[in-house]
Amino acid sequence: MGPASARLGDLRSADPAATRLLLEAFDAGVDAVEPTRLVRDALARRGRAVLVDGQSVPANRVSVLAFGKAAPAMARGASQALGGMIGRGLVVTDETAEVPPWAELVLAGHPIPDEGSLRGAHTAIATAEAVEPDELLLALVSGGGSALLEAPLGGLTLEDVRDLNDQLIRSGAPIGVINRVRQALSLVKGGRLTARCRGRVVTLVISDVGSDPAVVASGPTVATSRAGPGIGELLDRYRIGGRAARLARRLARSPAGHAPTPVREDTALILGDRFTAGQAAARHLAGAGVRVSLAGEPLEGDAGAAVREALAATPRGTARVLVGETTVKVRGTGRGGRNQHAAVAAGIEVAGTSCRFLAAGTDGIDGPTDAAGGCVDGATVADREMARKHLESYDSYPYLEGVGALLRTGKTGTNVADLWIVDKSCDDR
Q: How far apart are CA 108 and CA 161, in angstroms?
């Protein structure tokens, strides 16, 4: 029994067995991207070389740099696979966790960077610079690393970075835009970290944002293209203002902001992503006799609009699994996250029907709350007007808690964005 299905007793449900199946499917998705196993299975030692997904990479010694929400578990997987080849390492994450004896653990802030994020970035720079030409730097990257590893360009303070992050998150800007801004204003992102490394670099990624390794955690170890809209244009588009935005525009136009990242012949592999989790969730439902489909396009855009589209696209008598990351343009001071917002919106739409809906972050965290998301059915919303008031004030957390639809799993140790399940199959079971 996984972290979500274990919480069934906390949820009010018109059909506990059907709700349990959704929770089990979510757990199956999370288990499919379990970091320790994915890393361990991708690596092996062979003499003075490391086998990376079957490819031999010469190395007398290995240094490990792990950052992101899955960093501790990924480091444990590397230790199990490579053992004594690893001489030193750094793990940067957001909570205390077990790490191998060779690793230094740095705790940093997420989703807003803090002093630990600065320490993590500068320690990562020192780790990369210490790698000798005959050694290998193994970078283990997972979602959340953008905030956890932060070294702003000269002139920007930590408070400036926090302000920009907070404004961008609240503006409804997609994660790709947020990461482009982060890359342009960082000493480590966009491949700038390993530009300092003299040895080979292998990057193994558990992705929360797609299939491009350069995008995850803003790509500190993978060079990225700087083509596309300028930073000033993006800040204007999402109405990001204030002192930090003015300084960011100026720095982005400076030589440091435009400096190209050296091209390196390194290896970067995606070990698991949102579709890995989605496929596993869909398989679990199919194994229970549900007719199920996995959406081919990732979830994106406004959370409320995405809920309506997902419900409309799911035929009666079937279930549909969706993965990705939506946005919510927050107004006011309510509590919640994008998945909780989606769950309230879905609860209003499905009220009085046999449909059920689950939306949760695979990391177990949704917004600045202790919940992963929500799980609703046709009996959840008895008063649509009250639910709409909470939705309009972006105050989904207390509403879901009050009606017994708040899903708390605890942190899962992995992170591949969000998983939604629309279930209209109940009439057929």
A: 14
Is 357 within 8 Å of 421 (Cβ atoms)? yes
**Strands (E) located in 15-135:** 43-46, 49-52, 55-58, 62-67, 86-93, 103-107
Say whether the peptide bond before residue 111 is cis (omega within 30 degrees of 0): yes
Question: What is the model's pLDDT at position 256?
Answer: 56
CA dist 169 and 12 (Å) reads: 31
144 within 8 A of 363, measured Cβ to Cβ: yes
| pTM of structure | 0.87
Instruction: Kindly state the helix (H) or strand (E) to which residue 423 belongs, with its residue range.
Output: strand 418-423
Query: For the CA atoms of 43, 264, 116, 249, what is the dihedral angle to 10 degrees?
Result: -150
For residue 412, how many other CB atoms are within 10 A of its CB? 27
User: 48 and 58 in contact (C-beta within 8 Å)?
Assistant: yes
- Sites in the chain below the pLDDT cut of 70: 225-228, 254-265, 427-429
What are the residues facing 55 on neighbouring strands? 52
Q: What is the pLDDT of residues 32-86, one digit of tens each?
A: 999 999 999 999 999 999 999 889 999 999 999 999 999 999 999 999 999 999 9
Q: Which two tokens stand for residue 412?
A: 């899962």
Q: Dump pLDDT digits (tens) for 83-99.
A: 999 999 999 999 899 99
Spatial separation of the C-alpha atoms in residues 50 and 55, rounded to whole Å: 8
Assigned token pair, 301: 């855009």
Residue type, position 124, single letter: A
Question: Looking at the DSSP assignment, which residues form a beta bridge with residue 356?
Answer: 377, 423
Largest CA distance in the chain: 67
Q: Do the beta carbons of residue 273 and residue 416 sit within 8 Å?
A: yes
Q: Which amino acid is at 139?
A: A
Task: Return the number of other C-beta atoms located less than 10 Å from residue 315's C-beta.
Answer: 12
- What letter represents residue 215's amino acid? V
pLDDT in tens, 346-378: 999 999 999 999 999 999 999 889 999 999 999
The pLDDT of residue 181: 87
SS3 call for 147: helix
Q: Could you identify the residue written with the tokens 């930590």?
A: 158
* Contact present, 63 and 131 (Cβ < 8 Å): yes
